[in-house]
Every structure is written in structure tokens, then in C-alpha cells.
Amino acid sequence: MKNRKEISWALYDWANSAFATTIMAGFFPIFFKKYWSLESDVTESTFHLGLANGFAGLIIAIMAPILGAIADKGGHKMKFLMFFTYLGILASLSLSLVSQGLWPFAIIIYILGNIGFSGANIFYDSLIVWICDSDKRDQLSSLGFSLGYLGGGLLFALNVAMTLYPQTFFLTDSTQAVKVSFVMVGVWWAIFSLPLMFEFKDPEKIKVSTLDSIRLGIREIMETLGHIKAQKNIALFLIGYWFYIDAVDTIIRMAVDYGMALGFESNSLIIALLITQFVGFPATLLYGYLGNKIGTKNGIYLAILVYITGTIAASRMESVMEFYILAGIIGLVQGGIQALSRSYYSRIIPSDKSAEFFGFYNMLGKFAVVIGPFLMGGVAKLTGNPRYSILSLVILLVAGGLILTQVKEKRAL
After folding, report:
1. Given a cut of 80, is residue 124 above it in pLDDT?
2. Residues 283 and 134: beta-carbon distance below 8 Å
3. Separation between Cα atoms, residue 39 and residue 141, nearest integer Å
4. Is 409 domain-assigned?
């Protein structure tokens, strides 16, 4: 039986996954091309969107370890979490106000939304060490991810129905439906974040001011770099994690693009995305129990093996039905590998510097989003065959798994 703190923590994943699913993975890329960049060349709009994703990722990658160090020094975790959450919510709502053709404004708001989403996750992830002992973190981490899949999937399914049948929802057309969807994401995120905001508070007596915590945090970041270099175990995990999560994040971001390159229709790809979401809910929840039974590291190995097998199969698929099957298979382990990686990392880092070390953890995740798509794009351009591009991700998965074999589950002091 989960207590109130555990439930409110996990529920935040339900809240912010609306942004990740409906906006990031679903409607923003399509709406950006068909509405905000209507008169632009297709390749030009792709270039602009790529810059936006890369720039947002780079900002968070640079900020993440610094923000984590500041929060740990000053005791301002919840203040920072609330600030970035509200930034993401405001950006989601603001997207509905951007008129046709104004792609620069859409890009700026989208970048701010990404910063809000990712920045809040730094502090959200670090809270797990406040909530429960290490032996319960596999299940709690999995609960969070599974609720994220369910919540994000439910809202996205409703939003898709709104765009397909706008009159049924008393809307004039699909354009209005998408704009209303952006508003719904902001409202959804705001409402379901409330339990976390009410349940968790920063210490009432904070000895260090915000300004002093910034100074101390920047100094601390240099010390942490030294700690990671000295802690071979943590360094090895972060390197291995970077490789395999690079492949995982690339598949999440590039799966629709790959399907389009093979000639599949966009509606079919949206269905595949929904399959992954709804399979991911129960599968991620069960994966936490599996991690307890076979060991957290073994659970990560199993997920990597499934990804390798699925990637090889994807390079040979010919039909939409095969795409659906692979979407379901990936849904079985996508949340699991993320959840177990987070809980495993929480066991080997110093507990009194959790936000700081999770800052580096999130930083690597953001850099992975940059390198993976570049690898796929480079291979596709060199070979002229998108099938080879998806196959290239096997290299990252194998490298990550091999490095992980050298990591031992022991907490750093």
C-alpha cells in the first residue's frame, strides 16, 4: 500500500506526461509544418524544428547539474520544481494563441515549454530519495512511469479523437481542436501537479539564501565533477547509461519519422504511438516487480536485449501491422528501462547530493537526444537507406550493456 507522499510523487508523472505525449511527440511537429510554417519549404521547417529541439536540449544539459547543485546547497528543490512546472504550463497554454504563419513565436514558446518540462524533472527525480528506502524504489519509480504512460495516453487519445471528429466535441475544425488540446495539456498538468506541491515542502528554516546557494552551487558543481571522476562506479554507470538511453530516446523521437520514410501513413503512426502508450502503462508497473525478482541490473539487461531484437526487426519490416507489433513490444520495456535506470542510479549516488547527481543524470539524457538522431541521419545520408539508420542504434545498445556489466551496486560516500 503506497502512502500519500509516494502517490503524490508518482502522480506528477501522470501530470507532466501530457506535455511529452500530446505536444512533444504528437501534435507540435505536425502542427508546426502544416499550420505555423504553412508557406515555408518542408526542409526549412524541419531544420527550424531540429534547431529548436537541439537548442532546448542544450540549455537544459548545461543548466541541469548547476540547478541540482544549487537545490542541494540551498534546500530549494520544491521552489525550483514549481518554477519550471509553471513555466511548462504557461508555455503549453500560450501555444494556443500563436496564429498561422508565426513559426518563430511557436519555436520560442516550444523551447520554453521543453525547458520547463525537463527542468522540473531534475528536481522531481531527486525527490525519490526523500520518499522511500532503496529496496522500494524499483516499484515506486515504475509506478511513476506507468502512470505517465496511462495519463499521457488517455489525454492524447482524447485529443486525437477531437482532431478527427471536431464537430462531436463542439469544435469548428481540427485546427481549433489542436489549439484546445494545447490548453488541455496546461490545465491537466496544473491540476495533477497539485498533490505533489501540497505534500512536499522545502525546509522551513533554510540557512542559505537563494543568491548564496547559487554561488555555493556553482562551486559545488566543480567538486561534483571531481567526485564523479573519483567514483569510478558512478562514472561507469553514467557512460553506459548515456549509450543505451541514447538509443532509447532516439527511437522515441525518431520512430514516427522512420515510419514515414518507409511510406506508412501518419494516421497509422499515431495509432502505433497510442499502442506504445497503453501497453507501457501496465508493463512499466509490472517491470518494477520484475526488477525486484530478477535484480534491477538484470531487468535493464533484459530491456536492452528486447530493444536490440526490436531494432533489428524494425530494419526488416514491410507492413504497418509489423509496425504495430513492434510498437507493442517496445511498450513492454520502454518505461521499464527508464524506471529501473533511475532507481538503480539512486542507489549508487550519495543520498545527500541527490539533486546534484541527478542533474548530471538528466544532462546525459539530454545530450543523448542530440547524438542519437544525428547518428541515424548520418547513416541514412551515407547509405541512402533508412533501414540501415535504425540498425545503427544497435551499436549504442550493445556498448551501453557491456559498460553496465562493470558497474557494482554500492552507494558512494
Report:
1. yes
2. no
3. 44
4. no
**Residues listed for the chain:** 413
| Half-sphere exposure in the Cβ direction for 205 (13 Å, CA) | 0
Q: Which residues of 296-317 are buried (b: 16+ CB within 10 A; e: fewer)?
A: bbebbbbbbebbbebbeebbeb
Answer yes or no: are the C-beta atoms of 9 and 131 closer than 8 Å.
Answer: yes
Looking up residue 264, the CATH number of its domain turns out to be: 1.20.1250.20
Position 324 in a domain: yes
106: its cell numbers: 511557436
Range of the domain at 182: 4-200+209-404
Q: What is the pLDDT of residues 268-322, one digit of tens each?
A: 877 888 888 888 888 888 887 888 889 889 999 999 999 999 999 999 998 999 9
- Per the structure block, which three cell numbers stand in for 42? 518542408
Q: What is the pLDDT of residue 207?
A: 58
Distance CA 214, CA 229 (A): 23
The answer to the question of residue 365 being in a domain is: yes
Cell of 288: 518494477
411 within some domain: no
- Please list, in sequence order, all residues whose beta carbon lies within 8 angstroms of the beta carbon of residue 215, skipping any fewer than 6 positions away: none
Q: Round to whole Å and give the CA distance between 268 and 271.
A: 5
Assigned C-alpha cell, 410: 554500492
For 387, the 3-state DSSP assignment is helix
State the Cα–Cα distance between residues 179 and 169, nearest whole angstrom: 13
- The pLDDT of 132-141, averaged and rounded, is 73
Q: What is the mean pLDDT of residues 314-333?
A: 92
Q: Which burial class, exposed, middle or buried, applies to 83 when counting CB atoms under 10 A from its CB (0-12, 13-18, 19+)?
A: middle
How would you write 318-351 as a 3-class SS string?
Answer: CCHHHHHHHHHHHHHHHHHHHHHHHHHHHHHCCH
The total of structural domains in the chain comes to 1
List, in sequence order, the alpha helices (H) in 200-265.
210-230, 232-261
pLDDT of residue 180: 96
Averaged pLDDT for residues 184-206:
85
DSSP structural state of residue 384: S
Q: Are the beta carbons of 388 and 309 closer than 8 angstroms?
A: no
pLDDT score, position 1 = 44
Which grid cell sits at 242?
548515456
CB environment 358-393: b (16+ within 10 A), e (fewer): bbbbbbbbbbbbbbbbebbeebbeeeeebbebbbbb
Three-state DSSP string of 91-119: HHHHHCCCCCCCHHHHHHHHHHHHHHHHH
Tell me which residue of 231, 310, 220, 238 sits closest to 272, measured CA to CA: 310
Is the Cβ–Cβ distance between 113 and 86 less than 8 Å? no
